[in-house]
Amino acid sequence: MRLYHGSKKILAMPICDHKSVAQDFGAGLYATESEELAGQWASAGPGGGFINVFDIDTEGLSIIDLCSEDYSILNWVAIILSNRIIRSDAPGPEKTAGKILSVHMPDISGADIVMGYRADGINLALCRAFIEGKLTTEALEELIIKCDLGDQVLLRSDRAVSRLVFKDAIPTDGAVYHLQRQSAESKAAALSSRYIGNELSNSMRCLGELLSCSCNAIDGPDPERFLDMFMISGYSRRYETGDPSVIYGLSGTELYHKVIADCDYPSGKAPDTGERIRHDGAYGCGELLAYYMQESGRPLKDIFRYLSFGRLYGFYPELSRSTLKEASSAIERKIHERSTSSTRLQTVRKRSGMSQKALSEASGVNIRTLQQYEIGNKDINHAAACKVLSLSRTLYCDPKDIMEYRPD
User: Fold this and answer.
1) Of the residues 341, 374, 389, the one at which a domain ends
2) What sign has the CA pseudo-torsion 199, 202, 208, 214?
3) Fewer CB near the terminus (10 Å): N or C of the chain?
4) Average per-residue pLDDT in the chain?
5) Both 242 and 310 in a single domain?
């Protein structure tokens, strides 16, 4: 059998990954028999990667093929439910999920390899729609086949991984494969929109769960710091560009875990996967932010430059009494007021929590000069490059973030 593994790096000596999170069939090494799909996996984030090519001798290995006649779509759903977090507010879906798990969960404990449909992106959203009663069993299987988002192969034992023989590593053009992936997911979303909702509703759910999770996490970064981590991670960009594998294919808890891992935070722990994320003010803030982002076209980085999460959270009780459109307009007014009354340097410094004195000492920029930049008496756009670089490095931001915008 020939297998392909999409990655940001060459994987000449693969290992069985038992620590991964948010994986469809459980932990292990994921591959596919499709070179094109592996290229899309390699290009999931910014830039390209490598399609690692392997041959494997499967003789003597225990293989479960969930797409074979020996298994039903309900067996596939049960495995997904046992490994992924699929949240719903109504009590019915929880009972349905529990019944599917108790009746249809196949025994894969002795399997070396598990094969079946992918469950990220639209396929996971279809799984959610199914347990919510929006799809029959037959309609679920028909849609997954029509969406044609590919199959995957999980090598779940060290014995299976040790059989892999590395053949090649093919560099990928990230732009080409990213467009292929977006096109496939967009077609699948169009086919499934009646059941899975539109992009905005899923964006609101995703960001609401993420912010609620960050506020309820144990031993993790505080919400402000977590949002900084989210914004510098690749997942923020993918969320903002409407990547279906993030918006449709991840719960807030799963996305939290991935951001924590992406930023290599040492001790962050999300709430237990079985714990319901509370639909509190943080959840509402996330929903409102997602709505405002679509209305305004502003990325999160731009929003939080002028309106911190703490400030938004404080405003939320007042905003929640309005419609989403009215609340979105109120946020726009607040951002406009702050953006016209503060220089960018002042805004970024205050958001970082540093005093002028602390920034001056850490950056080496004279405090009087710093004060003049902040009140606009001196134009930071004409400052020496070394000063701008020193200030931006101290504030952990891009130099452009503290320069003043000048319209043409």
Assistant:
1) 341
2) negative
3) C
4) 88
5) yes
